[in-house]
Amino acid sequence: MLKLRRAIVLDVGSPGSAGEQDLVIELVDEAHDAEGGAMERGADAGGEQRRRPAIADVALVGRAEIGDELVVNVQARDLGLGSGGFDIVHVNLSRGLGAEEDWDPALPTRPNVMKLNYTSLQHTVEPVEELGGASEHPVGVVGLPVAVLALHGQLAAVAWAFSQARPASRLGYVQTAGGALPGGHSRTVRSLRERGLLVGHLTAGAAFGGEGEAITTVGALDHGLRVLGWDAAICGPGPGIVGSSSPLGHGGMSALDSAHAALALGASTLLVARMSSGDPRARHRGISHHTLTVLDLLLEPVTVALPAGMRSPVGADLRAGLGAVFGGALPSRPALELDVERPITDRPARITRHDWRRAIVDLPAYAAADLCAETMGRGLTEDPLFFGAALAAGTTLAELAEGADRGEDGVGEAERSVASPGRS
C-alpha cells in the first residue's frame, strides 16, 4: 500500500523549464495540543532522517514554494532502492487543491483519454494518435529505422553516435514502460534536447509527461516517424529499471514489445544489445541475458550491432573479440571475468538468425562529449563494453537511416510527404 508522510518544503530548485522540480523537504508529525494542534518538526523517536531530497512532477502537482505543506510518498527511499533515493510529492496541500483545469478552449474537443487511469494521479491527455490523420493501415514508416533500448543508460550513446554519422538527420525518442514513467524525470533527455541530438520526446502507454502523449507504443512510433517527420527513432524505457530474479520479470522485456511494434509498422528494427565488461553479475557480462532472452523470443529477425572486432555472439570468441575492441585493456579482476563458457541460450539458432553487424566505436570521443556515461554506478572506464555496444548501435542506426533515404526499404518521397509540416 502507499506509504505517505506529511512534509514541509525547506528549499526549491531553480525555476527552469524542466518537468521535475528538485526539493529539500522535512518530514513532520502531527502533534495535537490543548489549543487544537500543530505540526511538530525535528527528529522522531526512531531517529528517522527528516531532512530529505524530494521531487515534484510539476505538470501533475504544480510547482512548490518554500514553506509549502506536502504529502509525499516515501516508500522507495525507505526501502533503499538504488534508483529511488528521494521522496515523491503526492499532493501539495498549500496550493495544489485549488488548481484550475488546464484545458485550452481553442481545441476542437476536450481531452478524454486518461493516463495513470484509475489511480489517484489519473489525468487527461490529448493523444497523438488523434493528430496527423493516421490511417487504418499506416505505411509511411516502412523502412525507417527504430532502435530499441534495454536500458535508459544506452540512450545518450546511441543518440550521439547517430548524430556523428548523420548530423543533419532528425532523431526522436519514444519513452515506454519498464523504467521511470514520468517523462520529466530524465536529465539525459533534457540534455539531448538542449543540444539538438533529439528533436522530440513522446511518452507512450503508461509513461507520461513527454512533449506528446501516445496511448500505445505503435501509435507513438507512427506519429513520430510519419507525422513529425523523424528520420529515425529510439524507443525504450525511462531511467531505472524494474527487476526480479526471474528470466522474464524485468523491465528489459519491454524491448520485446517495442521491437514487435516497430516490426509491425514495417520499420527497420535494431535491438541495442545490453553488454558489459564490468558488471559483477555473471548473467549480465558479455551479452546480457536480458538481450539474449528478447532475441530468442522475437517473432521476426532484427538487426543487432556489436563493436568492431567482436566476431560472434556465442562461444569463446567473445573474449577474443573484446580484446580486439579495447586493445586488450580489459579488467583483470576475477570478479569481472566474462565467463565465456557460460551457455548463453538453449536455442543458439534463434539468436544467430538475426542480422548481426559490426561498427567501429570511438570511446574517447564520446567521453569528451560530456554526455551521460554511467550505468549502475559504473563509468565508461569501469564498463567500456556497455557504452561501446550502445555507440555501435547508434552508428548502425545511422546506416539504416541512410538506406531508407535511398529508398532501399520502400520509403518514397510521396509516402513521407505527410511529415513535411512537422519539419523545421
What does this protein look like?
The protein is an alpha/beta fold and 424 residues long. The chain has two domains: 4-98; 128-422. It is built from twelve helices and 20 strands. It has helices at residues 58-61, 75-79, 155-165, 187-194, 217-227, 254-264, 289-297, 317-325, 348-352, 363-368, 384-405, 413-416, and strands at residues 4-12, 20-31, 38-40, 51-57, 69-73, 87-92, 113-115, 123-125, 145-148, 171-176, 200-204, 212-214, 232-237, 268-271, 275-276, 286-287, 303-307, 355-359, 374-375, 378-379. The protein has an eight-stranded parallel β-sheet with strand order 12-11-10-13-9-14-17-18, with helices on both faces. Helix 3 (155-165) crosses helix 11. The longest helix is centred in the last third of the chain and has 22 residues, at 384-405. The termini are far apart. 44% of the residues are buried.
